[in-house]
Each structure stands twice: as C-alpha cells, then as structure tokens.
Design brief:
single chain; alpha/beta; Rossmann fold; 12 helices; 16% strand; binds guanosine-5'-triphosphate
Length: 437
C-alpha cells in the first residue's frame, strides 16, 4: 500500500493509493482526507480536479455554505475515482470595500481556515497548488450553471447544455488563442480555460456526479455559479461533518481567545468550551458549553437597512439587549456589527449602564487578516457568549449559530434573533438547525 504524499504534474506513479486521515501529516498533500475512513482504489488513476466559483454578489458566509455542497460532491466522486477540490481564492467580495485594506484578492483559504481540518473531510488543495501541479495554467472545461429560461412547472433534477441566458457571464473568447478568458480569482493574466459551456441546471450537488464521471474526461472541470446546486441533504450528518471540518485558522481563533480573556474574562476552561484540534473527535452534547459571562450580539446593518424585513432601530435593539442583560444577570455585551462607528456609538449610549464591547483591530491585524479574518474573529467571540442573539436571515448570524452547535450550547441560548420595532420583544425565533453526528 502506498500513501501518496506528493503530487507532481498529473501523474501518480503508485499502483494503489489510500486516502487516510491518520496517515503522515503533510501540508502539501490533498490526501489527508477521509475522516478516518480509508478509501482504496483498485487501479492507479490520475486525480481529476474540481474547481468552482460563486456569483459575484454573494457574501462570505453564503460562500462558506456553497463550499460544503461542493465538498460533499467531491466526497461522493471519490467513491468512484480520485478527485481533488481546488479551493477558490477569496477576493473581490461585494462587502469587502474598506479602502485601507489592500489586496483583498487571491486570498488563500489558509488565511481563514485550517486547511488540514478541511482535508479530513474532502481532498482539497489551494488554487496556487493546483497551478503548480498543472503543466499549463489552463482549466480544461468550465460549465456555467444557469436557470431554465422557460421556467419550470414541477421541480425535478435535470441538466441540459443550453445557450447562455445572459451575455454578461464574465467569460469571453480570446480569438487569438482560441481559449476563454475570465477573472479567475485575480489570476486573469495567467489562467485561461479551453472550453466554456452554459448549462441549465436544477438539482442537488450529487446530481453532477454521473455527468462528471461519464460525460467528460477532462482533467480539470470548473463549475461556475456553484450556488445554483443544492445541498444533497440539509442538516444531516454529512452536512455537519462538512461544517465541522471548516475549522477557523489557529491564528484567528487565538486572536479571538485573547480578546475573550482580556476583556470578557472568558476562557475555555471556565466556560466549558474547550476546542478539540481534531474535529472528528469533538462531539458535544447540548448544554455542555456554558459560555462567557456576556451576551453576544450580531447586528447586521449596511445593505440590510434596505433589504431586511425585520431590522430593529438601534434604540429598539438596545432595549432588547438591556432586557437580556438583566434577565441573565450579566453586565457585558459584545457587539459584532458591520455598522459604521457612529451607529455603534449611538447603540452604546443607549446601553450606558452596561459595558458594551467590540473588537477593534490594530491596523496590522486589519491589513493581515482582512475583512474575512475580522468577520471570523467577531463570529468566534459571539460563538463563545453565554447567550447569542443575531439578525434575522443573516448568513453571518447562521454561521455563528452553527459554531455554537459545534461547541455544545443549549439551542435556547443560540437560536435567537432581534425583533423589529413593530414586533416589540416577542417575535418568532430563528429556526433551530441543530447538530447531528
Ligand atoms: N467584522 C464584521 N463584519 C461583518 C459583520 N456583519 C457583516 N459583516 C460584513 O458583511 C458581510 C456579510 O455578508 P454575508 O456573509 O453575505 O452575510 P449576510 O449579508 O449577513 O447574509 P446574507 O445576505 O443572507 O447572505 C461579511 O462578509 C462581513 O464582511 C460583523 O458583525 N462583523
Ligand atoms: Mg449577504
């Protein structure tokens, strides 16, 4: 039995290889995967690469959800033959507009996530590694998912090659080279694609499996607009394994933990929130985690002021927070928000009897970890609060709720949302998407 540790070119010389979570750790290999399950392939087969991209307008936290759908697809593909998921570099996100933070482009996943933990769920490599492994910086085939133009009467899984519904799909044919150019995560000056095809699609992630196995032999395939595919199963054990594998990078967790210890008197030992480095071994029961002596609030503002149905005014948000602080006999509240400074100060003034905290990064931390990293630090601190309350329909809030499920909080202390002014104090709670193992 041979364990593949190095990928060079597209060639695998071993006659047999194994994907095993617990074989030697090597940061360079995609095959630390398997979640403890060994997968053995009868024949040597060069691995194929699955790339994906998400619609420009989608935010950081929905993109994290799309990753889970595609990671699951790669897992089921690996039941048949070796496939590696290429992690799409982060960048050019609609919300990441801070002028003082440069180069929010070509960001590796390792800045935000612990890639070794990801590999315990599915074989993954960073885009740059994929480029190094490729003989040429060419993606063989791009499939651009789109709706059925004629609409549909009954939902059924189907896909069909179709002309593109829209012309502004960000791919254009270069008539000199015969290849397709695009933004390619900020690598537009290096990378091209050989083939581009629009596909009308309706279905779950695994519905792509037979197509990828039988209808194309391309070495590298990119799924564009991957948010079109649905989760194979929302909320089942596979879903949660994918979610649990998305462990934040150690550095970001450390920054969050330092803040908790320094300003919130919150440590894992005191709060029963000790985090296992190996997520496959972490199985908490509801109510085991106690959390720090503070309330965590995610207050989404900015574009939600226009688009959200149930956003409270700052004054009404403060009233709800005050009530909770009194109810749980706490004096500190941690606010995660995208609100501008003056809005945060207004909110703090309404809560002047209490200690209102926010994470204020140094310019070095801002520069290094960028808006994605700052979002994660805020999420991590909220995830450790005694009680959490978020903003209705914000995926940013959902990701915090999931993190708290992983840590083992009582769902009553997690699935809460701020009510709008008309709803007063008694509105419908967030749906409880509890963890399963
Ligand atoms: N640091 C920080 N950033 C935030 C906070 N809330 C929102 N943001 C920023 O705004 C973005 C939120 O966008 P999404 O990830 O799409 O989440 P959402 O807009 O709340 O939810 P959906 O529109 O439903 O997807 C994040 O990526 C952050 O950059 C917060 O509390 N702290
Ligand atoms: Mg959004």
């Amino acid at each position: 039995m041979t364990t593949v540790r190095h990928l060079s070119g597209y060639l695998f010389l071993s006659a047999l290889f194994i994907i095993d979570a617990y074989c030697g750790v090597n940061e360079d290999t995609a095959f630390d995967a398997g979640n403890g399950v060994s997968m053995t392939f009868a024949e040597a087969k060069a691995p194929r690469f699955l790339l994906y991209n998400v619609n420009y307008g989608e935010g950081f936290n929905l993109r994290r959800d799309v990753y889970m759908r595609i990671a699951n697809l790669v897992r089921v593909l690996n039941e048949e033959e070796p496939w590696i998921l290429v992690l799409p570099p982060w960048g050019r996100l609609y919300h990441w507009q801070s002028k003082d933070i440069k180069n929010q482009n070509r960001i590796r996943w390792s800045l935000f996530f612990d890639v070794y933990s990801l590999k315990k769920f599915a074989p993954v490599v960073e885009f740059e590694e994929f480029l190094t492994m490729s003989k040429e910086p060419v993606i063989d085939e791009v499939y651009y998912l789109q709706n059925y133009k004629e609409g549909w009467t009954e939902w059924e899984e189907k896909m069909d090659f179709r002309p593109c519904n829209e012309n502004n799909h960000y791919y254009w044919k270069n008539f000199e080279t015969g290849k397709w150019d695009s933004w390619f995560f900020g690598y537009e000056d290096q990378v091209t694609a050989s083939k581009f095809q629009c596909v009308s699609f309706m279905g779950h992630a695994s519905f792509l499996k037979p197509f990828l196995l039988k209808n194309t032999t391309a070495r590298s395939v990119m799924i564009e607009r991957a948010e079109t595919v649905l989760h194979d199963q929302f909320g089942n054990s596979e879903y949660w394994q994918a979610r649990r594998s998305m462990v934040f990078s150690t550095t970001l967790r450390d920054i969050g933990n330092e803040f908790r210890a320094k300003y919130l008197d919150s440590t894992d030992e005191k709060d029963n929130t000790i985090f296992e480095e190996d997520w496959t071994k972490m199985k908490r029961k509801h109510g085991e985690a106690k959390g720090g002596q503070y309330i965590g609030v995610h207050l989404r503002r900015k574009d939600f002021l226009r688009t959200s149905r149930h956003l409270p005014s700052l004054k009404h948000a403060a009233k709800q927070i005050e009530k909770l602080l009194i109810k749980y006999n706490l004096s500190k509240v941690f606010i995660a928000t995208d609100a501008p400074r003056d809005e945060f100060e207004e909110l703090s003034e309404y809560l002047s009897d209490f200690e209102v905290l926010a994470f204020n990064p140094t310019s070095e931390v801002r520069e290094e970890y960028k808006e994605g990293g700052l979002a994660i630090i805020d999420q991590w601190i909220c995830a450790h609060a005694r009680y959490f309350i978020g903003t209705e329909e914000s995926t940013f809030s959902f990701r915090i709720q999931e993190e708290r499920e992983i840590l083992g909080f009582d769902p009553e202390m997690t699935f809460n949302r701020l009510c709008d002014d008309k709803e007063k104090f008694d509105c419908e709670k967030s749906s409880k998407w509890t963890i399963t193992y």
